[in-house]
Write a structure and sequence with these properties.
The protein is mainly α. The N terminus is likely disordered.
């Protein structure tokens, strides 16, 4: 008779994450002094930049496009007054976070989201400095740029809730982008490429599952190796197969599809409901994964496997089979995100075009506390930060261009380092399960 065993589980799991359920707070979920310090430092920086050194005049934002059914007037925001408003919001959130920390209570998800949104808005008004930009373009572009991050983070949630660390999201995004571009170009159908992208990502996920679960290789090492493998393989195929052969790298793009009535809603309508089909699929997948994880028997089993695999095995759940399926499904979700890099924006495949989005997706997963909704909000913040960098590069701002290039990654560092507080991964995350 075999006895299920599992390696000793550290209190913090494989790496930073979030509690598997929304019950009582474990000690690891409570706010740390580092979190309060991060909020205080960013609040002080907001005071210096947005209030004490506020720009003269107002920054103006266009709220409508030329073809919108309802035309809204421009929104002027006075730099000094808005800067002080942002500082007050940041101070309020910081004081609330400190009160919660002293009381020993767990962090609430709204605090980092409100703080990050207020800080980003203050930064936007400060850098625009009396000029005019399109808020509609900022939000719509940010949504498009966030889709690969959302789907990558969603794949990470599915995998790591089952106890397998998925560092290979970067490679899965790149494989999905390559598969989508080649198949769509060869067939002349963007929808064929849309089907090929999750299959390519699932193939990378299958390799991760095979080595990490079947052969019990260190999950972090396997993920990093797979990223390097996919980068090298796609670079080689791009050089030898796609370069000089436009018939295999000229994918048709997915045109925006306007949802009747909803796309005519002022401001949010054109942003949310005049997008390509991949964006709408992302909406559906976030809702489906959230419901499946927290409202179905499958989700309960997945979370049980990620928290206590020995107990799950005792009640008849096949731990490694559940993990294997989830890792492959995780790869498929990330691969679909890769299709957005090519088909979603009408671009040909380029070398290393994922550009670190897989690692930002991991940060969004942690920022979102291992929940689909939280990961969505975090990914949207990162997407808007990235698009803001592109927009500000085309206007005159007091911020050096080198800093603008760093902005999305700085947002990622601050988000993971302190804004979300001390959190933990599912207890068995990163720990192999072997029967002896």
């Amino acid at each position: 008779m075999t006895t299920p065993t599992t390696a000793p589980v550290p209190a913090s799991g494989g790496h930073q994450g979030t509690p598997a359920d929304s019950g009582a707070a474990a000690p690891a979920d409570r706010l740390s002094p580092r979190t309060a310090i991060t909020y205080a430092v960013l609040t002080a920086l907001a005071l210096v930049l947005f209030a004490l050194n506020a720009p003269d005049g107002s920054s103006r934002f266009r709220l409508s496009g030329g073809n919108d059914a309802v035309q809204l007037p421009e929104l002027p925001l006075p730099g000094a007054a808005f800067g002080w408003l942002v500082v007050l919001v940041c101070v309020g959130v910081t004081l609330w976070v400190e009160r919660e920390r002293r009381a020993g209570r767990r962090a609430r998800g709204w605090a980092p989201a409100v703080f990050a949104a207020a800080w980003l808005a203050g930064f936007l008004v400060w850098v625009v400095a009396g000029q005019t930009i399109s808020l509609l373009g900022l939000l719509a572009g940010g949504l498009v740029l966030s889709v690969p991050i959302v789907l990558g983070a969603l794949g990470g949630v599915v995998s790591e809730r089952a106890g397998v660390v998925n560092i290979a999201i970067e490679g899965q995004l790149l494989a999905g982008a390559f598969g989508a571009a080649v198949v769509a170009s060869a067939t002349g159908s963007a929808y064929a490429g849309l089907l090929a992208a999750p299959l390519a990502g699932a193939a990378v996920g299958l390799l991760l599952a095979l080595f990490a679960i079947r052969y019990v290789v260190n999950q972090i090492i396997v993920g990093v190796v797979l990223n390097v493998l996919v980068i090298g393989l796609t670079n080689y195929l791009f050089t030898t197969l796609l370069s000089g052969n436009p018939s295999l790298n000229s994918p048709p793009g997915l045109l925006p599809v306007a949802v009747p009535l909803l796309s005519d809603v002022p401001l949010l309508g054109p942003v949310l409901f005049n997008q390509s089909i991949i964006v709408y699929i992302t909406y559906v997948l976030v809702a489906v994964v959230h419901v499946a994880l927290f409202r179905t028997r499958w989700g309960l089993r997945v979370r049980a496997v990620g928290e206590h695999p020995k107990a799950a095995d005792t009640v008849g759940i096949d731990v490694n089979r559940t993990r294997f399926i989830n890792v492959v499904l995780s790869g498929a979700l990330a691969g679909l995100g890769g299709a957005m890099l090519t088909l979603g924006v009408g671009l040909a495949f380029g070398e290393e075009m994922s550009a670190g989005k897989g690692y930002i997706a991991l940060a969004a997963m942690i920022f979102g506390r291992y929940t689909p909704i939280g990961a969505l909000v975090a990914a949207l913040l990162f997407g808007v930060a990235t698009n803001l960098q592109d927009i500000l590069a085309s206007i005159s701002t007091p911020v050096p261009s080198q800093f603008l290039l760093m902005a999305p990654y700085l947002a990622t560092v601050f988000a993971v380092a302190g804004l979300v507080g001390r959190v933990r991964a599912p207890a068995a995350d990163g720990e192999p399960y072997v029967k002896q």
